[in-house]
């Protein structure tokens, strides 16, 4: 049973969605400090993870990308920049990240889980894509007809984010913040028992202090962030370890099912 921890490492531009204010330098600084917290927690628990990075974040934080690679984590693409997307960014971002860090970049996650033409993903050279949350999220997407578990589309392996076997309750970052941790643990265990793997994703800014009025973020996004998030995530990793679940990268998972 494999736990696929992943982190979308990007410029913290979420305040702009809510008409808040945040300079570009601060977007980078918040994500950087959060990523440092994440790497420390993963190192403490000897847990492997996959990091989906924008090129812009990676170019501005080369030392942290080099650190995560040296610690056995995987680097994948989150396209070029978080705030806008062009189809050419698929190939350009994969090649740029591979060139910058001399690593094989085989995976993609689209910013905000947006839809993308799978033929273009394959053409850009990816072997897997984890850009769909197979649930209903009002105002965002309705993916209730998408398979809960991994499937092939052309030559690309689709690895949807995990949802519960019953009612498709999503286990993404918002659930982690807003559900009681005991309930989140139960859902995670249910998924692992049913699917034999768990695919959950988070962001560096969740581990940083972001409760600022100027950001204008709704309470459900900022609940249990910063210090509270670090403590909850620490406890969650300890729980998974005690249950003897194995942590793996997406590349390792892909090899294990082929």
Q: What is the fold's blueprint, element by element?
A:
Layout (H helix, E strand, L loop, with lengths): L1 E8 L4 H4 L6 H22 L4 E4 L1 H6 L1 H9 L3 E4 L11 H13 L5 E2 L9 H6 L4 E2 L6 E2 L3 E2 L8 E3 L2 E3 L14 H6 L2 H15 L1 E6 L16 H4 L4 H16 L3 E2 L2 H8 L1
Parallel strand pairs: 1-2, 1-10, 1-11, 2-3, 4-5, 5-9
Antiparallel strand pairs: 6-7, 8-9
Helix pairs in contact: 2-10
Structure, described:
This protein has 258 residues and is of the alpha/beta class. The protein contains 11 helices and 11 strands. It has helices at residues 14-17, 24-45, 55-60, 62-70, 89-101, 118-123, 173-178, 181-195, 219-222, 227-242, 250-257, and strands at residues 2-9, 50-53, 74-77, 107-108, 128-129, 136-137, 141-142, 151-153, 156-158, 197-202, 246-247. The longest helix is centred in the first third of the chain and has 22 residues, at 24-45.
Unreliable residue stretches: none
Number of helices, where a helix is a run of at least 4 consecutive DSSP H or I residues: 11
- CA radius of gyration is 17 Å
Helix content: 40-55%
DSSP strand count: 11
- Briefly note the structural class of the backbone: alpha/beta
Largest sheet: 5 strands, parallel
Work out the strand percent: 5-15%
Report mean pLDDT, rounded to a whole number.
Answer: 97
Shape: globular
